Amino acid sequence: MKIEYTLLHKEKNTSARLGQIKTNYGTYETPMFMPVGTKATVKSLAPEELKDAHSGIILANTYHLWLRPGEDIVNKCGGLHNFMNYDRPILTDSGGFQVFSLVKNKEKDITEEGVHFKSHIDGSNLFLTPEKSIEIQNKLDSDIAMSFDECPPASASYDYLKNSVERTLRWAKRGLSVHNNPHQALFGIVQGGAYEDLRKFSAIETVKLNFDGYSVGGVANDGESKEDMYKAIEYSTPYLPEDKVRYLMGVGEPIDIIEGVERGIDIFDCVLPTRIARHGQAFTKNGKINFHNAKYKEDISPIEDNCGCYTCQNYSKAYIRHLINTNEMLGGRLLSIHNIYFLIKLTEDIRESIKKDSFLEFKKDFIDNYTLSLKEKNNLS
């Protein structure tokens, strides 16, 4: 079967949605945060640790797996679930974001047929088309595949974005025409920057193609303001069907997740929790903390009181700071476990607030606490 989405409840004061995704690997409620396993692994974490953090869907990256080890090897190993020993749902992105970050000349390298770029590994010339992206994802055998779309920079002009949206729609049709994995869902992607008319056009035309779910793309680009991100969501979700999943790509800041949910988004992903962990940072309800800070040298408390993650149940801030400052790998692992647990728990708490129609109260309390430490630090500086 392909995934099935059921809308369970709409929060009475906002566009926040409580939903349920039924998959071949279990049924999960939304809103949901999805950890990112770029190369068929969430960095430094074993599948059992992800499950202990209550993970549902996780992501793998089509571009990276195409280059190493290759989709045929994954396919021979029985698909991604067997390859990485993860028996819960997996979503693969199209590879588009990585490809477009490697493009040197937009005018020359982005063609109607596909995209020319150089491998980040050895500099070899590569060419990726909508058809090839879907072919790779079919072989990876993920539960959800993504259409190949153009990912324009936040600074792109209106005219460039208009042409990009139209090309993305043509590419979406081409990808649909070759998609042939009967138990793999395929999602369409809405683009258009922060322009209301382009987002509306992109959403309406993409929905006409009848994908299994829909994503709001182009909202996590360098240089994009929070205001533009929220506008892009607001301009897209009203035109997406209520009986299908809505996915906001590449967003993992806690406040951004809350703002996305308020505007009707169901699922989120981001590399942020493991990335900041490798730099010695942790999410808490009172904002991020940095373990390079000397004040944690003798702190025997957990990262966060009343946190149910493995790290907080077993280790002190003092120990984690020691690991980070001595470049021990365990430090980044323990912080990754906590950070992923934190974002998944955040979406669990959001779901409870939607059930009670108290989302706005939850949002205010969370943001007040999360930003308080930032205000205090600014005052001290």
Shape: globular
CATH architecture identity of the largest domain? Alpha-Beta Barrel
CATH topology of the largest domain: TIM Barrel
| Strands, total number | 15
Keywords:
alpha/beta; 381 residues; single chain; 16 helices; 2 domains; eight-stranded parallel sheet; TIM Barrel; three-stranded antiparallel sheet
Molecular structure report:
The protein has 381 residues and is α/β, with parallel strands linked by helices. The protein has two domains: 4-269, Queuine tRNA-ribosyltransferase-like (TIM Barrel); 278-374, no CATH class. Helix content is 44%, strand content 16%. The protein has 16 helices and 15 strands. The protein has helices spanning 47-52, 62-67, 71-76, 80-84, 96-102, 106-109, 130-140, 158-178, 196-207, 226-236, 254-262, 272-278, 310-314, 317-325, 329-355, 359-380; strands spanning 4-10, 17-23, 26-30, 32-35, 58-60, 90-92, 115-118, 125-128, 144-146, 185-190, 213-216, 245-248, 267-270, 281-282, 289-290. Strands 4-13-12-11-10-9-6-5 form an eight-stranded parallel sheet. Strands 1-2-3 form a three-stranded antiparallel sheet. α9 packs across α10, α11 runs parallel beside α15 (329-355) and α15 (329-355) crosses α16. The radius of gyration is 21 Å and the shape is globular. 48% of the residues are buried.
Question: What's the helix and strand layout?
Answer:
Blueprint: E1 4-10, E2 17-23, E3 26-30, E4 32-35, H1 47-52, E5 58-60, H2 62-67, H3 71-76, H4 80-84, E6 90-92, H5 96-102, H6 106-109, E7 115-118, E8 125-128, H7 130-140, E9 144-146, H8 158-178, E10 185-190, H9 196-207, E11 213-216, H10 226-236, E12 245-248, H11 254-262, E13 267-270, H12 272-278, E14 281-282, E15 289-290, H13 310-314, H14 317-325, H15 329-355, H16 359-380
Parallel strand pairs: 4-13, 5-6, 6-9, 9-10, 10-11, 11-12, 12-13
Antiparallel strand pairs: 1-2, 2-3, 7-8, 14-15
Helix pairs in contact: 7-8, 8-9, 9-10, 11-15, 11-16, 12-15, 14-15, 15-16
